[in-house]
Amino acid sequence: MTHSAAASTHAAAPGTWNLGDLTVGRIGLGAMRLPGEGQADRDRAIAVLRRAVELGVDHIDTASFYFSAAHSANELINSALSPYPADLLIATKVGPGRDPSGDWYSASPGQLRGQVEENLRQLGRDHFDLVYLRRMSQPSISEHFGVLAELREAGLIRHLGVSNVDLAQLAEAQAIAPVVAVQNRFNLEVRVHDDVLGACAEQGIAFVPFYAIAGEAREQGYPARAELALDATVREVAAAHGASEAQIRLAWTMHQGPNMLAIPGTRRVEHLEENLAAGAIALGGDELAALEQASRREIYGTEIPETENPGSGAVA
Ligand SMILES: NC(=O)c1ccc[n+]([C@@H]2O[C@H](COP(=O)([O-])OP(=O)(O)OC[C@H]3O[C@@H](n4cnc5c(N)ncnc54)[C@H](OP(=O)(O)O)[C@@H]3O)[C@@H](O)[C@H]2O)c1
Asked: Is the CB of 213 under 6 A from ligand 1?
């Protein structure tokens, strides 16, 4: 593959996206990685949050179940940023929960209001701009989503999202109340939600990918995983742009559509700055096609003909 001046480049110009009546920048910050153990981790997390807002980040993704023995993401956000800038959107997720010892549980519909209120208390806010129902293993989300729709009606939540859903579950939620965002796992190695992404693009719903950088390493973090065949392509594209592989992974995500809202997670200011800069990387048509082929080869073990390559046409 060569990266000679591409015939066309597709600027991922970060830009903005409307979540209902609220506008956010397309690169936000995921808070899952923030809670560490000691004072140094706490200081680092607070520095990341403050620098993020200083650099214009206005969308932070959190949850009350992001905590370590020493710190919780919500408390760190509150300490670092309150009183909050007027335009800062903090989104949370309910459904999963962790008891004080850290053990996971799946909330019953009757427990969801308590989870929303717990998040509000920890953050020191009186309502949420965006709350996702994060599906655990239940095949139907109607009952749970119905409770969040009631909280929306009551003014505790402005907009609703769903997470870890397939097309049928998204439709189930939409039959109850409007959905402004879907948060699903999506990266070069995981494309099981391509159909959900397509539906979101068609309907003007934000798609918020998680593990966009970490890939299949998930909680272990990037790059704590075995070398993949697709890494060679990512490296080649990164070299052509003088960028890091993490930046190219993120930039590729942003190029999948204007409704892609990234929430990369990091505990380092340098990585935060790199991730925000990735929004300015314009990938060429040949680079998008090469990444698409590498992704497909990695996942399906096969190449796809150029004419059927959605990656070459899916521009931001
Ligand atoms: N809905 C759900 O079920 C769900 C599940 C998981 C996560 N989430 C949300 O999605 C957000 C993003 O997920 P994530 O934080 O797990 O994964 P991610 O953003 O894909 O990647 C984070 C990992 O990549 C590293 N990293 C970040 N920027 C980097 C850079 N520029 N160069 C090199 N390494 C870099 C981080 O380590 P460093 O700290 O060293 O930078 C960390 O190991 C979470 O924070 C959370 O808000 C949602």
From this structure: yes
